[in-house]
Amino acid sequence: MARHHITTTINGDEVEFACEPGQTLLEVLRTELGMTGTKNGCGSGDCGACTVIVNDRPINACLVLGVELEGAQVETIEGMAEGTELHPLQQKFLDHAALQCGICTPGILNMAKAFLAKNPDPTESEVRYGLAGNLCRCTGYDKIVRAVLDAAQEMRAPI
Amino acid sequence: MADLKYESPTTTEAAVALLAAGGGMARVFAGGTDLLVQMHEEMIEPTLLVDIKNIEEMRKITFETDYVRIGAAVTGAELGENDKLVAMWPGVVEAVELIGSYQVQGRATIAGNLCNASPAADSVPAMIAAGARVCIAGPTGKLEIPVEQMLVSPGKTSLVQGEFVTSILLPNRSSNAGDAYLRFIPRTEMDIAVVGVGVSIELNADGVCSSARLSLGAVSATAQLVEAASGILVGNKLDDTVLDALASAASEACSPIDDKRGTIEFRTKVAGVLACRATKIAWQRAEKN
Ligand code: FES
Ligand code: FES
């Protein structure tokens, strides 16, 4: 079968990969590129665990094909921290204990990052709607929402 | 998915040719939020995906003399970011924005919501109320029809093999016009309509309704235009008698399914309630414009 040869940018680095036409971005990341930070929850756009940012928009990687990504800019959880320095969202998730098993966390962090880029000073209710496409089955949403609000505050006025 | 092929043509003509050559096994691919799910679940097993996102005209919202044209690959997020469109057709845009999460909004299209042909599709009653038309390209040429004409039955449109939607046209608005879409869902977000109502109103200089269209979704096999609504609204101002008549007309138009998300009785009643509420919102918007 014809494999497609794709050149794309992932977390600022040019990446080349070959994929089959039906392979999703999620499969490409996890199996072709060994980038397992992006999680597979439902595979059908319902849980948000696979959320990555493509051309500045948060999307479900399970609903995008690898072949579509020629020339695209992809941001995944692996690119969120600067070296050993955690992104404020990552740090606040630790501070607020906003994760337990962690399956939902990379997707929520990416969604929150994209959301705060558009709305840096959200209300609690806006954060809840913003994260409505991300399901968490263990932590409960309160800690997650508090961590995002706290990170937003810090990102607006870094200490 | 063993022998799936992927093509991304850059012209409508090339897309038509590819779809024709692919026969019944080719599928148009834009947002993919329904298509890829159906493929994963093996409800469909296409052998060719024709990605229309690299056709320039499919990606654009253009304001033309009589209407605004929304390309078939324009995403929900892009609609919401277009201030001029939001000012003109707030109800259509709010209906589209109810479809799925932010992540889905970054991919899903209004044309796809129509083609998926779910009776509960949120954007469809809003488009029918708006008097929207669909532009279709196919092996026998181009065609333009009202949205409601494309709906045949749950999951089925009037599109024949090789045809696909290229754009949606929303008419330009007079200054005293407004529209609105409301739905009932058991949750507060991320759910499928149990009842959906789209309304579009135009008022004359005296604040009297000069034209009106009301459409219901999720209460019959396809979204429908409630013909009686325009007769009730046109020539009148909004008062309790008019609203009562409107609620009855909306409820009478229902022939819903009965399921755990909404009984027949509930859906029928709620259709009347939401018809009034949506009409009030559309009316206020018309007065403000
Ligand atoms: S794995 Fe993609 S949304 Fe659940
Ligand atoms: S931490 Fe387990 S699903 Fe969210």
Can you walk me through this structure?
- The complex is a heterodimer of chains A (159) and B (289).
- Chain A has two domains: 4-79, Beta-grasp domain (Ubiquitin-like (UB roll), Roll); 88-156, Orthogonal Bundle (DNA polymerase, domain 1).
- Chain A contains five helices and five strands; from the N terminus they run E-E-H-E-E-E-H-H-H-H.
- A five-stranded mixed beta sheet of chain A has the order 2-1-5-3-4, sandwiched between helices.
- Chain A is 33% helix and 16% strand.
- By secondary structure, chain B is of the alpha+beta class.
- Chain B folds into three domains: 5-50; 58-171, 2-Layer Sandwich (Uridine Diphospho-n-acetylenolpyruvylglucosamine Reductase, domain 3), CATH 3.30.465; 177-288, Enolase-like, domain 1, CATH 3.30.390.50.
- In chain B, the strands form four sheets. Chain B has a five-stranded antiparallel beta sheet. A four-stranded antiparallel beta sheet of chain B has the order 11-12-13-14, sandwiched between helices. Chain B has a three-stranded parallel beta sheet with strand order 1-3-2, with helices on one face.
- The model of chain B has no long low-confidence stretch (mean pLDDT 94).
- The interface between A and B is medium-sized, with 31 and 29 residues.
- One FE2/S2 (inorganic) cluster (FES) is lined by residues 40-43, 45-50, 60, 62 of chain A.
- Residues 99-104, 136-139 of chain A line the site of one FE2/S2 (inorganic) cluster (FES).
